[in-house]
Structures are given as C-alpha cells and as structure tokens.
Write a structure and sequence with these properties.
This protein is of the alpha+beta class. It has a single domain, classed as Creatinase/methionine aminopeptidase superfamily (Creatine Amidinohydrolase), CATH 3.90.230.
Length: about 200
C-alpha cells in the first residue's frame, strides 16, 4: 500500500483523494478484513498534532505522512507510518528532521531483545522538554512511543517515557509490537516513521 501511495501521490491531490484511493486499494487485497484507519496528513496538518485526513490540497514540496493503522489482515493488526516529500526534492532541513526521527527510532530498536525492558527502549528517546521544549511529558504523549500488535491494535507492551521509566515491563520472546517516532517544525510540518518488530531469542 505504501508503494501504491508513492506511485499515486502528487501535488494537487487532496488528503481525502489519497485516502480514498488507498482505501480502495486495500479492500481489494485478498484476506483484508477491516481497514479501521488510514492517516494521510500533509504540510501543517502533520505537526504538532496530526489530522487523519482532510480536503487540504497537497502542495509541491509538502511533507506528507501516511499510516496504515489497524489494518486487519487474516485476523491480525498492523500499523505502519511512512513519510514522503511530494513533487520536489526534500530540503536540507527536511532531511535533517527526518534523519533525527530515524535515529531515535533505530536507537530504540537496537535495545529490543528478550530480557530487556520497556524502560531500556524508552530511555533511548529524548524527553519532551529536550526535544520540543514542552513542560510536561504528556504534551508529547504519542510522539515517541510503541504499542503491541496482534488481535488488537494496542496490545501490551505499550512503551512511553511517561510510564515505562517508572513501570518497566520485560520484553519477551514472541512479542510483536511497533515503535514509532515523530519530529518536526511546530505549525509547519513534521515527519513520522514506524517499524513493526517480532522479538526472537537472538534479538529481533
């Protein structure tokens, strides 16, 4: 579906049009049971609080991110953010912001192994104050976090600096979860990236 998005996405389309195209694409996949949420956010709709989708027209150079959220395929959920720059090459600032979000994501992924804890993962992320100047961690509750995936969209473990530092949960073999990071320029644009993980005894 993300590959289909890359082929379809272009300036002049609305977020709604992209969403409609991808929803039709997804429901034509054999085994697809439910598409609870597709997020297509562009430009200022990406940061600091994203919108699922709207009638905003995508402009050349816009950052657009899309989440395949809560897709149910053969009974199991998925969640998968990707970020795009539409119609032109990304600026150096856009590349730097993306690289920072990617670094935060993979620093967290490197900590995933049986016997590690959700605290070990959450400690890899900066505090909300350090990253964006927020006074309270809750103000950036879903910017840097992780959540279990399975028969439900938000199975354990749920990972965040808000609770994981004080209430760690052990990572166990067989756990399946997503980690996602977000970063951006307030009121202008932001990026969001996500990976889904299965924990194996020899790491992930």
């Amino acid at each position: 579906a993300h590959w289909e998005t890359m082929k379809f996405l272009r300036p002049g389309l609305t977020e709604n049009q992209v969403t409609a195209h991808i929803m039709e694409f997804l429901y034509n996949i054999p085994g697809m049971e439910d598409v609870e949420d597709v997020i297509v956010s562009s430009g200022p709709n990406t940061w600091p609080n994203w919108r699922n989708f709207s009638d905003r027209i995508i402009q050349p150079g816009d950052i657009v991110f899309m989440d395949l959220a809560a897709l149910t395929w053969n009974g199991y959920k998925s969640c998968y953010y990707r970020t795009y720059c539409v119609g032109k090459e990304p600026s150096e600032q856009q590349k730097e912001i993306y690289a920072t979000a990617l670094e935060w994501l993979y620093d967290a992924i490197k900590e995933v192994r049986p016997g590690a804890t959700t605290k070990d993962i959450a400690e890899q992320w900066p505090s909300a104050k350090e990253a964006w100047g927020y006074e309270e961690e809750d103000q950036a509750a879903a910017n840097l976090w992780g959540h279990g995936l399975g028969l439900a969209q938000y199975d354990p473990p749920v990972i965040s600096r808000i609770w994981s530092l004080d209430h760690p949960i052990e990572i166990q073999e067989g756990m399946t979860f997503a980690l996602e990071t977000q970063h951006g320029i307030p009121m202008e644009w932001g990026v969001r990236i996500e990976e889904m993980l299965i924990v194996h005894k020899d790491r992930t």
